[in-house]
């Protein structure tokens, strides 16, 4: 397709076994990018890598837990070793954690959500930036949330984690824009992935909520993937430090 001129770009995507990570992997594959895909579940991750290769892209799956710095480093090393450099990263892996009012939240849920959503982005950017500095620049897109800007009942650790992802994004963007690395975040609203199935518990509850929102529907992973491609591409050369909300207007209602 080559809409965003990402042909042969070396791209790392975390959380590529499902949802928005999977959709982004296939969208980058259609653009002819070369992919390193990471997640914990091998079968699902290998299936996404195979689907990307079927679209004509080079793609490899690396099993990794993004809460572990050594795993994250291994993923980024793969991209540099295989493709000679790292051009783009989509730091997307994340979890919603337990839904409960704050006073009932177990501390281990808080720690797990922070490790999965925040520490992972810190580890990822640390090693991605080091690789990008070696090769003269790149673009990083973090998956934050509309919950980086607003509260959401019963998801206090998750919402705190996504505020933190935006803080990391903004700060790293300031540090590295002068060195040729643009760093932005996509901030999705309610997107139809297994994540939302777990949050709402039933298709009925999920669709009921979606109907009450301005667009009257849930967004798709493919709609978010298009935004990720744009922010990663040379079409977005004046974007850095932004949390770009893609929520069908939910947060402006
Ligand atoms: N869906 C929404 O409405 C929505 C809205 C705003 C933001 N987001 C954010 O979007 C991102 C993607 O979520 P999604 O909606 O696409 O949900 P999803 O389908 O559940 O995907 C989550 C991905 O993260 C991976 N992951 C989770 N923990 C991991 C770990 N410790 N190490 C490595 N990979 C890990 C999962 O892979 P494995 O289980 O195989 O490890 C999976 O590929 C998340 O950061 C989420 O917070 C989602």
Please outline the helices and strands.
Blueprint: E1 10-14, H1 19-30, E2 34-39, H2 42-54, E3 58-63, H3 69-83, E4 88-91, H4 107-135, E5 138-143, H5 156-176, E6 181-188, H6 194-200, H7 203-211, H8 221-232, E7 243-246
Bound molecules: NADP nicotinamide-adenine-dinucleotide phosphate (NAP).
The site of NADP nicotinamide-adenine-dinucleotide phosphate (NAP) has 30 residues, from helix 1 and helix 6.
Can you walk through the features of this model?
- This protein has helices at residues 19-30, 42-54, 69-83, 107-135, 156-176, 194-200, 203-211, 221-232; strands spanning 10-14, 34-39, 58-63, 88-91, 138-143, 181-188, 243-246.
- The chain is built from eight helices and seven strands; from the N terminus they run βαβαβαβαβαβαααβ.
- With 253 residues, the chain is α/β, with parallel strands linked by helices.
- The model has no long low-confidence stretch (mean pLDDT 97).
- It has a single domain (10-246), classed as Rossmann fold (3-Layer(aba) Sandwich).
- The N and C termini lie far apart (35 Å).
- Helix 1 packs parallel to helix 2 (42-54), helix 3 runs parallel beside helix 4 and helix 4 (107-135) runs parallel beside helix 5 (156-176).
- A seven-stranded parallel sheet has the order 3-2-1-4-5-6-7, sandwiched between helices.
- NADP nicotinamide-adenine-dinucleotide phosphate (NAP) binds at residues 14-21, 39-41, 44, 64-67, 92-95, 116, 143, 145, 188, 190-191, 193-196.
């Amino acid at each position: 397709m080559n809409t965003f001129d990402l042909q042969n770009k070396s791209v790392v995507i975390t959380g590529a076994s499902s949802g928005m990570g999977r959709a982004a992997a296939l969208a980058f594959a259609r653009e002819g990018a070369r992919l390193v895909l990471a997640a914990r579940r091998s079968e699902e991750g290998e299936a996404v890598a195979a689907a990307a290769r079927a679209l004509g892209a080079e793609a490899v799956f690396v099993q990794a837990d993004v809460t572990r710095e050594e795993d994250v480093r291994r993923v980024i090393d793969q991209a540099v070793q295989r493709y000679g450099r790292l051009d783009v990263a989509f730091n997307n892996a994340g979890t919603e954690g337990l839904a409960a009012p704050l006073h009932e939240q177990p501390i281990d849920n808080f720690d797990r959500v922070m490790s999965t959503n925040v520490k992972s982005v810190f580890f990822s950017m640390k090693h991605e930036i080091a690789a990008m500095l070696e090769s003269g620049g790149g673009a990083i897109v973090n998956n934050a949330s509309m919950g980086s800007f607003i509260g959401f009942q019963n998801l206090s650790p998750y919402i705190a984690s996504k505020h933190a992802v935006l803080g990391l994004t903004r700060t790293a963007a300031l540090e590295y824009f002068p060195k040729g690395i643009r760093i932005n975040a996509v901030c999705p609203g309610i997107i139809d992935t297994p994540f939302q199935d777990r949050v709402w518990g039933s298709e009925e509850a999920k669709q009921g909520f979606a109907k009450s929102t301005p667009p009257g529907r849930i967004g798709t992973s493919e709609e978010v993937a298009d935004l990720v491609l744009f922010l990663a591409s040379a079409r977005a050369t004046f974007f850095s430090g932004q949390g770009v909300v893609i929520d069908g207007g939910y947060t402006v209602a």
